[in-house]
């Protein structure tokens, strides 16, 4: 029982009020519980768009290039990989390209490949790397030389530096439903649309169709062209990209994905296209594979250990990791599926003060506080995540709109590490302002293009490691 000390001018009732207020404030500071959104959306199944939809239309003309997409082709952003498919014949591997203010057309030669999957044979898949580009420059490029030509454009990133602003779009688990189209449209119309996209895995969902229907990789490629032909997307592979189907004698993992979506893994000395790193403006982005061995002394573990030692936070202060399966999750679906990777890689993230870890897989949205569980050992049973200002924020946005629909069931009560969660489709934006500040916001599809369903300022763990909460 608390004893009330007599203080001139303060009544006992006032003391009681102050004591209760102090206790409430203390409890709120200690718990800082998360928010489960009260937004109620119309519940309905995700439905695939018909195959004769405009978004899947084959471009007109003989051997017209289709499924055009680009990604970064080197470590620093001065190269771009251009990929496209022709169906009638291989056609030309040449890409013509020129800067906005130049009449001189440059030429690059690429490669062509095909693959077979069960009874399906792919079109002719072209990959061509444009090198020695200038920073912060708009380039036009032309594919389909000799037959039907198509012209697109992209803008290279600014030169790398600690205070260079840059904006990333954040999307995952799209598929090709009406909801997928709404997500992509919502992102394209967002006034804060990114200059590039970090994509956290699960692309076409071809494995959801009989015999992993690879025609669905083609329709998805045509659907996405309106964005990925004009700005680079950085790919992380998901479980629906594995395409392991021993019942039809298809046992080569990630065969369609790796043939169609090249990555610049060799630029960061990675032996696998499934994990790699790039620098872009003031960010260092590390892409990991949730479905590749990650235990100690595996190639992915050794590569990550070596790659983190190369990061210079005076050059690229923002350190971002993307993967598919989340390491923290408070929904019933996929709960603790990322535990193996968390146990192995979380100490790396804390030691190196990673700013963000972005993931998908869960078909909903969730943001964590800065927490870690690196003290966990079976013998001490200390297995509760704790606040740790050297830890990343873990954000899940596997809410692109795929055919499997939303994951609605949440674990109750909401764990202390969960800051905000909502089961809706949408996308997110990360606006890096300088070496200390970044503005993050998540957008649900049901809102207006500029409406932020959740937003927060984040502070860099290396240059400004204060508690955002």
From TrEMBL:
CDD domains: MPP_PAPs (cd00839)
One Pfam family this sequence matches: Pur_ac_phosph_N
One Gene Ontology molecular-function label: metal ion binding
Gene3D superfamilies associated with the record: 3.60.21.10, Purple acid phosphatase-like, N-terminal
Catalytic activity: a phosphate monoester + H2O = an alcohol + phosphate
Domain Fibronectin type-III as annotated: residue spans: 64-159
Domain of life, per lineage: Eukaryota
Needed co-factor(s): Zn(2+); Cu(2+); Fe cation; Mn(2+)
Alphabetical UniProt keywords: Glycoprotein, Hydrolase, Iron, Metal-binding, Signal, Zinc
EC number(s) stated in the UniProt entry for this protein: 3.1.3.2
Keyword Transit peptide: no
Leading EC class: hydrolase
PROSITE patterns the UniProt entry points to: FN3
Similarity remark: Belongs to the metallophosphoesterase superfamily. Purple acid phosphatase family.
Complex formation: Homodimer; disulfide-linked.
Protein name listed in UniProt: Purple acid phosphatase
Lineage, broadest ranks: Eukaryota, Viridiplantae, Streptophyta, Embryophyta, Tracheophyta
């Amino acid at each position: 029982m608390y004893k009330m000390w007599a203080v001139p001018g303060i009544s006992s009732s006032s003391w009681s009020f102050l004591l209760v207020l102090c206790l409430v404030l203390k409890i709120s500071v200690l718990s800082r519980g998360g928010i489960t959104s009260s937004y109620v959306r119309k519940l309905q199944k995700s439905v695939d768009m018909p195959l004769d939809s405009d978004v899947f239309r084959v471009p007109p003309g003989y051997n017209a290039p289709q499924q055009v997409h680009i990604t970064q082709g080197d470590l620093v952003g001065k190269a771009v990989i251009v990929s496209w498919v022709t169906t009638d014949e291989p056609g030309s591997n040449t890409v013509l390209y020129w800067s906005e203010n130049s009449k001189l057309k440059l030429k690059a030669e690429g490669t062509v490949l095909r693959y077979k999957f069960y009874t399906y044979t792919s079109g002719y898949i072209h990959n061509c790397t444009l090198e020695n580009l200038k920073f912060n420059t708009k380039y036009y490029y032309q594919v389909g030389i000799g037959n039907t030509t198509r012209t697109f454009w992209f803008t290279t990133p600014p030169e790398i530096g600690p205070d260079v602003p840059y904006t990333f779009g954040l999307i995952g688990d799209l598929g090709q439903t009406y909801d997928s189209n709404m997500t992509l449209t919502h992102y394209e119309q967002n006034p804060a649309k990114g200059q590039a996209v970090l994509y956290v895995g699960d692309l076409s969902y071809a494995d959801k169709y009989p015999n992993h229907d690879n025609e669905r990789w083609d329709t998805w490629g045509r659907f996405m062209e309106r964005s990925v032909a004009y700005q680079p997307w950085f790919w992380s592979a998901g479980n629906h990209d594995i395409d392991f189907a021993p019942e039809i004698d298809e046992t080569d993992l990630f065969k369609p994905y790796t043939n169609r979506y090249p990555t610049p893994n060799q630029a960061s000395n990675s032996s696998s296209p499934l994990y790699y790193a790039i620098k872009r403006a003031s960010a260092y982005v590390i892409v990991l594979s949730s479905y590749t061995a990650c235990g100690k002394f595996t190639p992915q573990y050794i590569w990550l250990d070596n790659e983190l030692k190369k990061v210079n936070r005076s050059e690229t202060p923002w350190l971002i990791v993307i993967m598919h399966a989340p390491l923290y999750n408070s929904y019933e679906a996929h709960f603790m599926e990322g535990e193996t990777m968390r146990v192995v890689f979380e100490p790396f993230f804390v030691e190196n003060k990673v700013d963000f870890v972005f993931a998908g897989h869960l078909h909903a949205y969730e943001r964590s506080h800065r927490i870690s569980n690196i003290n966990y050992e079976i013998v001490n049973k200390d297995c509760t995540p704790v606040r740790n200002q050297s830890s990343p924020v873990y954000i899940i946005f596997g809410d692109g709109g795929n055919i499997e629909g939303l994951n609605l069931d949440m674990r109750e009560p909401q764990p202390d590490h969960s800051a905000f969660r909502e089961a809706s489709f949408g996308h997110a934006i990360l606006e890096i302002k300088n070496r200390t500040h970044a503005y993050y916001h998540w957008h649900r599809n049901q809102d207006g293009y500029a409406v932020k369903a959740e937003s927060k300022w984040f502070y860099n763990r290396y240059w400004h490691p204060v508690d955002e909460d």
